[in-house]
Design goal:
The complex is a heterodimer of chains A (about 260) and B (about 350). Chain A is mainly alpha-helical. Chain A has one domain. Helix content of chain A is about 75%, strand content about 0%. Chain A starts with 14 loop residues before the first helix and ends with a helix. Chain B has two domains: about 15-235, P-loop containing nucleotide triphosphate hydrolases (Rossmann fold, 3-Layer(aba) Sandwich); about 240-315, Sporulation related repeat (Alpha-Beta Plaits, 2-Layer Sandwich). In chain B, about 40% of the residues lie in helices and about 25% in strands. Chain B contains 13 helices and 14 strands. In chain B, a hairpin with a 2-residue loop joins strand 1 and strand 2. The longest helix of chain B is centred in the middle third of the chain and has 16 residues, at about 180-195. Chain B is globular, with a radius of gyration of 23 Å. Chain B starts with 18 loop residues before the first strand and ends with a helix. The chains are: A mainly alpha (about 260), B alpha/beta (about 350). The interface of A and B includes residues 8, 29, 98, 99 and 104 of A.
């Protein structure tokens, strides 16, 4: 019977796409089917947005805008950066439960497990970004620059999240247990999120911190999203932001895939 | 029913082997996980790799299933090199690992359909195949439930079903019955038997001689990364002196050594084991039941009273002791010491 075994083709380019979609679907189902995950990952940022707006909003005067105008563009970036830590947690979970072994023993496209994961996470960011814009609008946020720039602002936040998802994927493939993945995420996320122009203008910080905050990828992205949303100089922060996004992808996408192929 | 018809096929015909390894080596840091493995499995047979924890069984399976690259040596599945033709190998194999690799948040059916799609069966064929497998593994009623609600045995069956989605000609099972209750274990053995009847080549690892004996045509015994003996179950049992083990306990522990001496000539070249602390003596013999009377006669003549007497099957412990002179426990300890942190991590995984 073995001689009758027809050997299936070993590789087709389209598998990169179809396999990625199969894995993305699986990861989205997980998100949809775990209500606590959906609730916490949506209620928490909504709550934070309200707290920041009403608790700190009065004390922080930022560039003469109402604080919500200043805060929301930054919040869109914050939510995708924090959200990206879920990628490493999910992958570490798959690794520890043997799912990654199973996938790696299948004749599927070698990039699909990570690409499917990052695709699903990017869709999640899109949902979160739209939700934040919705809630923000209810409490007084208004785009000042017209619909095309507003759409560009939202897309840039999602794209930034996509880049960080690959960084997070690399971490997830490197640590191998869920708890470490969780902790590892916060070690790098907190400094870059808070030492940025997200919540307060950078020029209110001490000099040494300004130096870090000014080159921080979160700052340049927040500045770009803010300029797209509210008006102002777009091109300068945009090219810096694009350089960061490109740089992160060029480094961490191949690293993550390499990790996947050669798990020790 | 391991079957008289099942004659062990010689491993000499390497060329036509479904699975073969030559000089396979793998080192993790200072630990020699595999220290030069040569092995061949004929198509349509079951090979069991028998060994204690930490012997290198999982490492060997991971190399053959393309999950890990060897440091030296070669391995082939159906003639395809597992390193250079890894993609072709993945088309020909099914793998069920030590822990069920199924997605808890998907239903049983969704798990199988996903695997079918990743084998590129096409979605209607993947659906059809999922239904067939759910049916034959008794999971049809649970098909629409999320795996989260499944029992351990159900997960294991679903995992095995997933490894069979593409009807692979070669199947790898890493400790397939570990942690299963006796009934589920019997059910799984039957499934494996049927697969081999249909022509599948099966490679499985186990810690139980009984399981290897029940299922496999050939057994290889692995210890610290080396194959120390290979052959049929019958042959291995003969290695340790008999196919049956007589175990007894003397009433007066002081007489343990005397009992061992009286029975010493019974087992032919088999080794008599005695534990003075507990008064236990065990002797491997050929043609067990008829020997039982002889044991009683000799001890009676020697004035030794018994508190317990039983006929049992030799286990991995007995084979291991006669092959290596060490107990399974001692070997596991050596492996654990060498492995240190590695092993601890794996145990944590097992707990989850």
């Amino acid at each position: 019977m073995i001689s009758n075994q027809s050997i299936a083709p070993v590789y087709k380019f389209t598998w990169n796409i179809t396999d990625t979609l199969v894995i993305a679907r699986r990861n989205i189902l997980r998100f949809v089917r775990l209500p606590q995950l959906l609730i916490f990952s949506t209620i928490q940022p909504v709550m934070l947005l309200l707290l920041f707006t009403y608790v700190f909003g009065g004390a922080i005067s930022a560039g003469g805008f109402k604080y919500i105008q200043f805060l929301l563009p930054g919040f869109l970036v914050q939510i995708v950066v924090f959200g990206s830590s879920q990628t490493s947690v999910g992958l570490a979970e798959d690794l520890s439960r043997g799912m990654i072994d199973r996938f790696r023993s299948l004749p599927m496209a070698r990039a699909a497990v990570l690409a499917g994961r990052t695709l699903a996470d990017t869709l999640r960011y899109t949902f979160l970004v739209l939700l934040m814009i919705g809630v923000g609008s209810i409490i007084g946020f208004r785009f000042q620059n017209g619909a095309p720039f507003a759409i560009a602002a939202a897309m840039l936040a999602v794209l930034f999240g996509f880049a960080f998802t690959w960084l997070s994927a690399f971490i997830g493939m490197s640590v191998k247990d869920v708890e470490t993945a969780q902790v590892a995420g916060f070690v790098w996320i907190f400094p870059i999120v808070f030492a940025s122009s997200m919540f307060v203008p950078v020029d209110t910080m001490p000099g040494w911190l300004q130096a870090f905050a000014k080159i921080n990828p979160v700052t340049v992205t927040v500045d770009t999203v803010r300029a797209l949303s509210l008006g102002g100089e777009v091109l300068t922060p945009l090219w810096k932001c694009m350089a960061w996004i490109g740089g992160i992808l060029v480094i961490f996408l191949p690293l993550a895939v390499r990790r996947y192929r050669h798990i020790p | 029913m391991a079957g008289e018809a099942r004659t062990a096929e010689s491993a000499s015909s390497q060329g036509g082997a479904a699975i073969s390894a030559e000089g396979l080596r793998k080192t993790f840091g200072k630990i020699k996980a595999l220290d030069g493995i040569d092995l061949a499995v004929s198509p349509g047979t079951i090979m069991a790799l028998l060994g204690p924890n930490g012997a290198g069984k999982t490492t060997f399976v991971r190399i053959l299933t393309t999950l890990l690259s060897p440091d030296a040596g070669q391995a082939r599945v159906m003639g395809y090199d597992v390193v250079r033709n890894a993609a072709a190998v993945r088309n020909l194999i099914g793998l069920a690992g030590q822990y069920p690799a199924v997605d808890e948040n998907l239903t049983g059916r969704e798990n199988l359909e996903m695997v079918g799609q990743l084998y590129h069966l096409g979605s209607s064929e993947a659906r059809k195949r999922a239904s067939e497998l759910l049916e034959s593994f008794g999971l049809t009623d649970a098909a629409r439930r999320r795996v989260k609600t499944y029992s351990g045995g159900m997960r294991r069956r679903l995992d095995l079903a997933a490894s069979l989605v593409a009807r692979p000609p070669v199947l790898f099972l890493d400790e397939p019955t570990a942690g299963l209750d006796p009934r589920s274990r019997l059910g799984l053995w039957e499934v494996i038997d049927n697969l081999v009847k249909q022509g599948t080549t099966v490679f499985l690892t186990t810690q139980y001689l009984e399981e290897a004996d029940r299922l496999a045509h050939n057994i290889a015994v692995l210890d610290n990364g080396r194959i120390i003996e290979q052959g049929t179950a019958q042959y291995l049992k003969e290695c340790c002196g008999g196919d049956v083990l007589i175990q007894l306990r003397v009433a007066d522990r002081a007489q343990t050594a005397l009992a061992a001496e009286l029975l010493g000539t019974l087992g032919g070249d088999g080794k008599v084991r005695s534990t003075p602390e507990t008064g236990e003596v065990s002797i491997p013999v050929v043609g067990g039941p008829s020997m039982l009377a002889e044991v009683v006669r000799r001890l009676d003549a020697g004035g030794i009273a018994l508190s317990d007497l039983a006929l049992t099957q030799p286990t991995l412990d007995d084979v291991f002791l006669s092959l290596t002179g060490r107990t399974v426990e001692a070997s596991e300890e050596t492996a654990a010491q060498a492995e240190g942190g590695h092993r601890r991590k794996r145990n944590e995984r097992a707990v989850k």
